[in-house]
Specification:
By secondary structure, the chain is mainly β. The chain is built from one helix and eight strands, in the order αββββββββ. It has an eight-stranded antiparallel β-barrel. The N and C termini lie far apart (about 60 Å).
Length: about 150
């Protein structure tokens, strides 16, 4: 009888505490990096990438990726291109692409955009900004890039 009572207490108290564990997504600190111009791009051209975890409605966790680029040549100066897009990726695993939107103020155009659909716990290790023709989806030269080592 004592053995049965001990087994019953063990099953009801000890085992449930071991089986009801939560899935915890690895928390990464926010990360930012300067995007550098590639060969034959003016030295004034620069960008910044910001990567951090966000919590959306309904406890939906994601990684937010945003890029802000300044002093870029007009996309049309490279050929039949009318915009810039970001290619963020983990080599041989996954990639994300999103278009940057232009904002012109005082004759200068700033290109910015973000993507909040990156799975939690995933961080791109390579970021590139390249020209694109939004009608044909043809991509062109890379103008800014960065290999992220510490994100």
């Amino acid at each position: 009888m004592k053995k049965l009572l001990f087994n019953l207490i063990f099953v009801l108290v000890i085992l449930p505490s071991q089986t009801h564990s939560e899935n915890i997504v690895e928390e990464f600190p926010p990360c930012s990096a300067i995007l550098e111009p590639t060969k034959n791009i003016p030295n004034n051209a620069r960008g910044v990438v910001l990567i951090y975890n966000i919590e959306r409605q309904f406890n939906d966790e994601r990684t937010s990726l945003s890029v802000h680029a300044l002093h870029l040549p007009k996309p049309s100066s490279f050929g039949d291109y009318n915009a810039y897009e970001v290619l963020a990726y983990i080599p041989k695993e996954i990639s994300w692409i999103f278009t940057l939107s232009p904002v012109t103020k005082y004759g200068e155009t700033t290109w910015a955009g973000n993507l909040d659909e990156v799975s939690p716990g995933m961080r791109p290790t390579r970021i590139k900004v390249r020209t694109v023709n939004t009608a044909t989806k043809k991509t062109g030269p890379i103008v800014l890039e960065k290999i992220l080592k510490s994100c």
